[in-house]
Design goal:
This protein is mainly alpha-helical. It contains 14 helices and six strands. It has helices spanning 24-46, 53-76, 103-121, 125-143, 145-150, 181-203, 209-226, 247-265, 301-311, 315-323, 325-343, 351-362, 364-377, 391-411, and strands at 14-17, 20-23, 164-165, 177-178, 241-242, 245-246. The longest helix has 24 residues, at 53-76. The protein starts with 13 loop residues before the first strand and ends with a helix.
């Protein structure tokens, strides 16, 4: 029966450049990594991070991720490489270019590489996780096309117009069409990436919550897509199931529940997230910095406390300290020093009276009042007008009296 519409499979998945094989599966993985790193770098710089950070993180993350992805595949499909009925040799477990990378192991062990780098650089792991989440989803969407070239991980038979053609006798395939599960997952991941970008801006998801949303979104789609697949996971010619669910479906359930729990339990978290090294080794002019992407009304509590402590010390406070308690202490110390100098018969330095002038001036009103009271108690000469006689007038009268007395003695000597 002629096929009205279908998706053909590539005639080959490897090309040779002389003796060097160029495998489509590896090209798709590499292209996905490049796009994910490029996108994450742009998002990180927009968040205020130092340029080149995502590139530095990607190196250990990719290495750890490849190891983790392959380990998960070999552990869950060990019958393909070990045992009397294994179709492959044990050493072929190292041939990652033949396909077989478990995303669960890749993200888990790749995350260890990211954590080690973040700890070394002094930046927050949660901030990095939120930044790379959309890029990971897009990278997965591109990498899934490697399964198309290898004609693997397809679903059950279907008569849909977008059914996938699989070569006869390829992993036991028969003539007909199959669900293109690689395409389903690729489209799902692209949609998920755009949802993550939108949700991150709309709700300002921080502290790992955006990454948790990625995990929940991916596992939700993977659970449905995994149910369509017929590839033998955990067995040589059949998939190992538990309660009618495949191994990867159970993994998806556990991660989905864990991601949702993390998402809701951290909704009130407001600790500082560092996007620049805490030791001040970032770009010139940029020291340790909390996440500058926070809106004004979403500042972390610790940031607010830090700003409040800083705002307490203002230029006015500095001026007050010169006239306030520190100045009084300084004046007291200066007065003591001057007293010691006078006791030893020494004259105080020229600047010492100036330092003690301010306390003396403040005491003038009390001193003037005291002098006025004493003057009121003494006998002050009073003129006929009832006003006090001035001091210079009293002195002139005394001089005249002395002169008259001298002349009187001259006229009448004794």
């Amino acid at each position: 029966m002629p096929l009205v519409a279908s998706i053909p499979s590539p005639p080959q998945g490897v090309w040779y450049l002389g003796p060097i094989p160029i495998r489509a599966y590896a090209l798709c993985i590499v292209l996905g990594v490049i796009i994910a790193v490029w996108m994450s770098e742009r998002r990180w710089r927009a968040r205020g991070g130092a340029p080149g950070t995502m590139i530095d993180i990607a190196v250990p993350a990719v290495i750890f991720g490849l190891i983790g992805g392959r380990l998960y595949h070999v552990i869950t499909d060990w019958q393909l490489y070990f045992g009397p009925e294994a179709p492959n040799e044990p050493y072929e477990a190292l041939f990652i270019w033949n396909g077989g990378l478990g995303i669960w192991g890749a993200v888990a062990l790749g995350g260890v590489g990211v954590w080690l780098t973040c700890r070394k650089r002094g930046i927050s792991l949660s901030a990095v996780a939120d930044t790379v989440a959309p890029g990971i989803a897009i990278g997965q969407a591109i990498g899934r096309w490697g399964n198309w070239f290898n004609q693997e991980l397809y679903g059950g038979p279907t008569d849909l117009p977008w059914g996938l053609e699989i070569d006869i006798n390829k992993d036991g395939a028969v003539d007909g069409l199959y669900h293109p599960t690689f395409l389903y997952e690729s489209i799902w991941n692209l949609i998920l990436a755009f949802v993550l970008i939108w949700a991150g801006k709309r709700f300002t998801l921080r502290h790992g919550r955006l990454f948790a949303l990625y995990v929940a979104g991916y596992t939700l789609g993977r659970f449905w897509i995994e149910g369509l697949r017929i590839d033998p996971v955990g067995g040589v010619d059949h998939a190992v199931t538990f309660l009618s669910l495949r191994i990867n479906q159970w993994t998806a359930i556990v991660l989905f529940v864990g991601a949702l729990a993390f998402f809701f339990l951290t909704r009130g978290k407001d600790t500082v997230e560092y996007v620049l090294p805490r030791d001040g080794s970032g770009p010139p002019g940029e020291g340790a910095s909390a996440d500058p992407a926070h809106a004004a009304d979403q500042a972390d509590e610790s940031d607010t406390v830090r700003e409040a402590d800083t705002s307490e010390k203002t230029p006015d406070d500095a001026e007050k300290s010169e006239d306030g308690e520190p100045a009084k202490a300084e004046a007291t110390a200066t007065g003591d020093a001057a007293g010691d100098a006078s006791a030893n018969g020494e004259e105080p330095a020229a600047d010492e009276p100036a330092k003690t002038a301010a306390p003396a001036e403040t005491a003038k009103p009390a001193e003037t009042t005291a002098k006025t009271d004493e003057a009121a108690k003494t006998d002050v000469p009073v003129a006929k007008t009832g006003e006090p006689v001035k001091d210079d007038v009293v002195k002139d009268d005394a001089v005249k009296d002395d002169a008259d007395a001298v002349r009187e003695e001259e006229k009448n000597p004794r």
